[in-house]
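Continuing from the previous page...

OK, I double-checked the sequence for Beta-phosphoglucomutase against my notes and this is the correct one:
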Amino acid sequence: STSAFIFDLDGVIVDTAKYHYLAWKKLANELGFEFTKEQNELFKGVSRKRCLEILLDIGGITASQEDFDRWMVEKNEDYLEYIEKMDASEILPDVPKVLNFLKQKNIPIALGSASKNARPILEKVNLLSYFDAIVDGNDVTKAKPDPEVFLIAARKLNVAPEKCLVFEDAVAGIQAANNANMISVGIGDALVLSEADHNFNDFTEMSLDFLEGLMSTQA
Ligand code: G16
Ligand code: MG
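Thanks. Re-ran it with the corrected sequence; updated structure tokens here:
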């Protein structure tokens, strides 16, 4: 049975993808090319460094190491300006309902995110206190679909991977959860996240009975 829950951040708890998009778009425009919302889909769950590599590929730009490092900093500074203005109103629907339910049952909760800005974001939206462990882009060496981020989270919670469940909105994230031998729950388009064990468009469609069921099944 499931005894711990791991949440991805962007796309599951908050929609920071729109701020990542605006910051990447600004950089692309400065470098003289367009960056579309559709292209931004490729950036979900992907590390900042890998995103810049893809962006420069789209623009057909070869960068020196110096340029690359400067653009990484520039993008993040722009992104942080948006984060600065975030508050609890940006928490995605019914996320607090699920977190409160798990808390009240004393179930360990972890964050498993590719972002290096995960802590300040959780602080901004006032959810930091719900998490017993936070594993983010500062803690991992291998990006999703590698299971590292979720395995570290399980270890920090002291729960076996098979007893962990992961909420993810990115294909690479679902694959990472599956690679970690965890139960994967896709939040978003079920056609895109078809590799997940369970699918929901968002948390409003997931009943607390569903969670209760997972926690009480024999396995
Ligand atoms: C998030 C986003 C990605 C972003 C990555 C790194 O991952 O989905 O688009 O590139 O974090 O973010 P940062 O530049 O803040 O380190 P996740 O895993 O929370 O969905
Ligand atoms: Mg995500």
